[in-house]
Specification:
The structure holds 2 protein chains of 2 kinds. By secondary structure, chain A is mostly beta strands. Helices cover about 10% and strands about 45% of the residues of chain A. In chain A, strand 4 (about 55-60) and strand 5 form a beta hairpin. Chain B has 21 helices and 22 strands.
Chain lengths: ~170, ~700
């Protein structure tokens, strides 16, 4: 079934209308293309990684695949909270130039699936300097809510893909 | 349509590259003085089959080149041209050119026409010099005949008195000239069996305007004289029978004079038949080549029949699934271990049986991924041949254990490091003949490559009987670079292994071969990425050798699991020397190095894993936890962990599939309880300890 997905998140913006999954992080509502969402699962402890940034919680066993999990609260500059029963991991599966990548995002809660129009997408005004602004692809107003569309490709590039120079142990 | 054709293309290229490799090997074994007829034959067949295939797919450049090559080889095969060193060199260059052309064609990039034209010119030049008559019409070959159907080509041949003469009425289906079915190929196969005469009957040829280029209007009468049994002919005819109506009639043993048409007696037609004009002794071991596709050496064909090609992805999937079964099985085992009722014993017995079966399955699947190291070694005869000629050195290459099997992934990654080591040996190790004679050695140096299995590892040795490493110069350079203190004294072994340090090269003259800034440190890193180790042995004046030890597979590792700060880590068993519980107070704090303790007479540094990985440990006192002594590159390090959990075999999963490389971690695995455990990268940690103490 994976084969029938559109090739890239970036390509998806060309479509006129599409469905997005919305989820809450802090007081904001974020959205990702529904076609990128592989599954939503409850929080389960992960294996911590050495020398990882604070938002990188660790690795999860997803039916034999080893998947990194990012805490979106920390990543977006919000304070860390205790995980509750509604805390979920949204697992995304994205095709990139270096193959398919799977990763999980820990969010406060998942809301619903909505249709948004590509024409409704707005630039991000005056958010420069805010943590995580580089991960925002655009804003969309749906009903009375404002959705923040997450730039998944950018998230992979910055936080998950191989870096040019591997970081050296700073711990010791 | 395009897709189907692409499939055939892929098959053609795959086969062509393989047969080129075989051709190269055969060329390197060719002795200039006493050439082996069978070897030349097999080389000829490679050129012939590539020509056929490329013609079929309209790869005109390749076809044209192989045509010249084939003509050239035919001369060699017939003994009309001597096999000399320059001939072999030219043929080797031709294989390179051909490989380049095929690769360019495969990737649909432009062919390097200059190089191919140069070599083609050289081939033609040599042909002209050696046998001017034979190449008077180099293009007039059997293959071109059908296209000149109106000319009514006639092959005449001298008859052998004691042989049987056969008459074959060759009436191809009118669609015979559809793609892939070329009557000329049947003719040339038949011509190889003996003396052949061919008469074409062009009567049915329509006026040119009505001519359908894909329809074959011609019929032929073939008269073949050979001492081979009828089966040999039938074999070839079978190949064409699907498309042709053929009749084989055994004629009287008495020589039936061929009645050539008038033009056949004219002298130019003699030149038209280079293959048949001179009666060739039929190849002794001829198994009647069954058509073009089977034109590879008989050996390759028989090996193929017992194997299948499988995409590596399918094997990876299989391997993954088996890995999952192993995990599920150990999960069940853990569940059963907790329970006590009487039935559990029987469940446990069943599980133990299952475990054994699963392990066998895992090993079988792993073996499927294994290939003989010959695939990595096969390029070296050529490399040694070329480099020794360029450096005016005489080098004999001795390879043993080529059948030793290695995981395909390891095999792919071992090639470049081996090339580097071989180049080093040729460039720096083996001396010039004069130097060798002066030192009382034979003029020709020996380069040896051995591969063998030792326990769960594969050992590859690359060495030479050259001058050995200049340890004094290495030490001096290391001192100058500050790698070794001015007053430190090192064992010879330690000095030799300094060359694996980054940026270390003592070559006085950086040569074209080894002086390209890639040092032995890169070789070492490549080997370590494969989970292997590398070691150097040298003896002044006697030579040096590099010993590479590699794991049998990259998919599975035997390891000890240890707990640190609530996490489980796997330490590969090969790296572990000992696991200790230290007494209170045995560790000492040394300024600049950190904590050390005495282990078998040496002070070795301690890495507290919880510090390196920034975890909250169960205990900070060394005597309350465990110390795992691990070794890499002869350096030992003690890893301080909370607790030793046990030994287990784990399936290695890459961290880089979904994330990135992490310093100190070589991969991850899934434990019996379904949680993820990280596998420690021991070389990385040892280096980390060294850098820490150097800082």
């Amino acid at each position: 079934m994976n084969q029938h997905r559109p090739a890239l998140a970036a390509n998806a913006s060309a479509e006129a209308s599409r469905q997005v999954l919305t989820f809450c992080v802090g007081s904001e509502t974020y959205a990702v293309d529904i076609l990128l969402v592989q599954e939503i699962r409850g929080w389960a402890p992960v294996t911590r990684l050495p020398q990882a940034p604070p938002y990188m919680l660790g690795m999860l066993n997803l039916r034999g695949s080893i998947v990194p999990v990012i805490d979106m609260r920390i990543r977006l500059g919000l304070e860390q909270v205790k995980f509750t029963p509604v805390t979920v991991i949204v697992v995304l599966s994205v095709r990139t130039s270096s193959g398919r990548r799977e990763f999980g995002l820990v969010v406060d809660s998942v809301s619903d699936v909505v249709d948004i129009d590509a024409a409704e997408l707005q630039e991000t005004p005056g958010l420069a300097g805010k943590t995580g602004v580089e991960l925002i692809k655009g804003l969309a107003a749906v009903a009375d809510r404002m959705l923040i569309l997450l730039n998944v490709d950018e998230l992979i590039r910055r936080d998950l893909a191989q870096t040019e120079a591997p970081m050296m142990a700073g711990a010791a | 349509m395009t897709l189907e054709l692409d499939q055939f293309h892929a098959g053609f290229f795959e086969e062509a590259f393989e047969s080129l490799d075989a051709m190269e090997t055969a060329l390197l074994q060719l002795d200039p003085g006493t050439p082996n007829a069978e070897a030349i034959n097999s080389i000829f067949r490679v050129a012939h089959s590539i020509k056929g295939g490329s013609g079929m797919f309209s790869f005109t450049e390749v076809a044209s080149f192989t045509h010249t090559l084939e003509t050239f080889l035919d001369e060699l095969r017939a003994g009309r041209m001597p096999v000399t060193r320059p001939t072999i060199d030219l043929l080797l260059k031709s294989t390179d050119v051909l490989r380049g052309m095929l690769r360019a064609t495969q990737h649909k990039t432009p062919v390097d026409q200059q190089t191919s034209a140069d070599i083609q010119f050289d081939l033609e030049q040599m042909l002209v010099q050696c046998a001017p008559a034979a190449v008077a019409h180099p293009t007039a070959q059997a293959s071109s005949a059908p296209s000149q159907a109106g000319v009514a080509p006639v092959w005449t041949a001298a008859l052998h008195p004691k042989e049987t003469t056969w008459t074959i009425e060759f009436r191809p289906n009118i669609r015979l000239q559809a793609p892939g079915a070329d009557p000329s190929r049947v003719f040339s196969e038949l011509a190889e069996l003996g003396a052949m005469a061919l008469v074409a009957h062009p009567e049915k040829l329509p006026p040119f305007a009505e001519l359908d280029p894909e329809v074959c209007y011609l019929t032929w009468t073939i008269t073949l004289t050979t001492d081979l049994p009828s089966e040999a002919i039938q074999n070839i005819l079978d190949w064409a029978e699907a498309d042709c109506q053929l009749r084989t009639m055994e004629s009287a043993p008495a020589p039936v004079p061929v009645t050539p048409q008038p033009i056949a007696t004219a002298s130019p037609s003699q030149d038209l038949a280079p293959a048949a004009a001179v009666p060739l002794p039929p190849p002794a071991t001829n198994q009647a080549p069954s058509g073009d596709a089977g034109g590879l050496s008989a050996k390759a064909a028989s090996a193929d029949s017992n194997s299948i090609r499988v995409a590596i992805e399918k094997l990876d999937e299989l391997m993954n699934t088996v890995g999952e079964i192993v995990i599920a099985q150990s999960m069940l085992m853990q569940l059963v271990d907790g329970a006590k009722p009487p039935r559990v014993d029987r469940i446990r017995a069943g599980l133990i049986q299952l475990e054994r079966n699963v392990r066998e399955l895992q090993e079988s699947v792993m073996r499927v991924r294994m290939l003989p190291i010959r695939f990595a070694f096969s390029r070296f005869p050529r490399l040694v041949h070329d480099l020794s000629a360029r450096l005016n050195k005489q080098i004999e290459l001795k390879m043993t254990g080529e059948q030793t099997e290695l995981d395909k992934k390891v095999l792919e990654k071992i090639g470049d490091p081996l090339v580097h080591l071989v180049r080093n040996s040729i460039d720096h190790g083996i001396e010039l003949p004069e130097t060798r004679i002066a030192a009382g050695k034979s003029a020709a140096g020996t380069l040896f490559m051995n591969a063998y299995q030792r326990g769960g590892s594969i050992v590859i040795e690359v060495g030479d009987d050259g001058a050995g490493l200049n340890l004094e110069r290495i030490l001096a350079k290391a001192r100058a670079k500050g790698l070794v203190g001015q007053t430190d004294s090192l064992s010879d072994e330690a000095v030799a292994n300094l060359i694996f340090q980054p940026g270390f090269s003592t070559a006085e003259v950086t040569t074209e071969l080894s002086g390209r800034g890639v040092g032995m440190d890169v070789v070492r890193r490549n080997i370590e990425e494969l989970g292997g180790t590398i070691e150097l042995r040298t003896q002044a004046g006697q030579g040096s050798s590099v010993v590479i030890t590699l794991p049998l597979t990259l998919a599975i590792v035997d390891g000890l699991s240890v707990a640190v700060g609530g996490e489980v880590y796997i330490i590969p068993l090969v790296a572990i020397i000992a696991s200790l519980e230290l007494q209170r107070g045995v560790a000492r704090q040394l300024s600049g190095i950190g904590e050390v303790f005495l282990f078998r007479g040496d002070y070795i540094p301690i890495i507290r894993l919880h510090e390196a990985f920034n975890l909250e440990p169960r205990c900070r006192d060394l005597h309350l936890g465990s110390v795992m002594v691990v070794e890499c590159d002869g350096r030992k390090v003690g890893l301080f962990v909370d607790e030793l959990l046990g030994q287990q075999q784990v399936v290695i999963k890459s961290m880089e599939t979904n994330y990135r490389r992490i310093e100190g971690i070589s991969g991850a695995t899934i434990l019996g309880d379904g949680s993820v455990a990280l596998i420690l990268d021991i070389p990385g940690l040892v280096r980390f300890a060294a850098e820490r103490s150097a800082a």
